[in-house]
Design brief:
The chain has about 230 residues and is α+β, with helices and mostly antiparallel strands. The protein has one domain: NADH Oxidase, CATH 3.40.109.10. Helices cover about 40% and strands about 15% of the residues. The strands form 2 sheets. It has a 4-stranded antiparallel β-sheet. A two-stranded antiparallel sheet has the order 3-4. A hairpin with a 5-residue loop joins strand 3 and strand 4. Helix 3 runs antiparallel to helix 7. The longest helix has 20 residues. The chain is globular and about 55 Å long. The N and C termini lie far apart (about 45 Å).
């Protein structure tokens, strides 16, 4: 018989429905206010804020509770410069070198994105989320991880929300390919870069596209007996 985690009582407070819905409405309003930012301030962000966001992300559910993620936080200017140079090289090859289909470039055009990523040196922090394709035991043997991409994706969503709750801004940056991040950051073979997050406060003159989210009706299907 395999070892099991000890089970403990779980009795969260059941809120009155009006209180629950009020909290839900507030959470929705806060989520609606979040935007991806490409114009950042260089103002410092305390390490503790990044720690809290990583800890919040690490509460995410994961396949078999393997927690197959690693968040690498970078504030060293030389490393940020190295990441920017490598990221821009890959992005330029995508935008101008034929990697990115015309349809994709057309879809991105309204957002004003280019291969240039100067914010990677402006932000006080870069955090790279890595997915652990397998675990490594003390004796060096491999430990199978389950639902890795799903688990890391959920953790990254919770990471973004935690940053937003602290008044910080970020952007999900996924230069392709991203193997340069493993090399620059010295990560082992079982870790693959998943998302790069530049993190800081929005610049005083930051602007974002006036995006409209899809309506509830367009993103949901209800199969009820009502």
């Amino acid at each position: 018989m395999t070892d099991r985690y000890p089970f403990i009582p779980y009795r969260p407070e059941r809120l009155p429905i009006d209180v629950a819905l009020e909290r839900g409405q507030r959470a929705l309003a806060e989520a609606e206010a979040r935007r991806s930012v490409r114009d950042f301030s260089s103002d410092p962000v305390p390490r503790r804020a990044i720690e809290l966001a990583i800890q919040a992300a690490s509460t995410a559910p994961s396949g078999a509770h393997r927690q197959p993620w690693r968040f690498v936080a970078v504030s060293d200017p030389a490393l940020k410069r190295e990441i920017r140079v490598a990221a821009e090289a890959e992005e330029r090859a995508s935008y101008e070198g034929g990697r990115m289909p015309e349809e994709w470039r057309a879809a991105l055009a309204p957002l004003g994105t280019t291969w240039k990523k100067p914010y990677l040196e402006v932000v006080p922090w870069i955090v790279v989320a890595f997915e652990q394709t397998y675990g490594v035991a003390d004796d060096g043997s491999r430990i199978k991880n389950y639902y890795v991409k799903e688990s890391v994706g959920i953790a990254c969503g919770m990471f973004i929300n935690a940053l937003h709750q602290m008044g910080l801004a970020t952007l999900t940056h996924t230069p392709s390919p991203m193997a340069f991040l493993s090399k620059i950051l010295g990560r082992p073979a079982n870790e693959k870069p998943y998302i790069l997050f530049p993190i800081g406060y929005p610049a005083s003159d930051a602007q974002v596209p006036d995006l409209k989210r899809k309506s509830l009706d367009s993103v949901s299907v209800w199969l009820t007996d009502e």
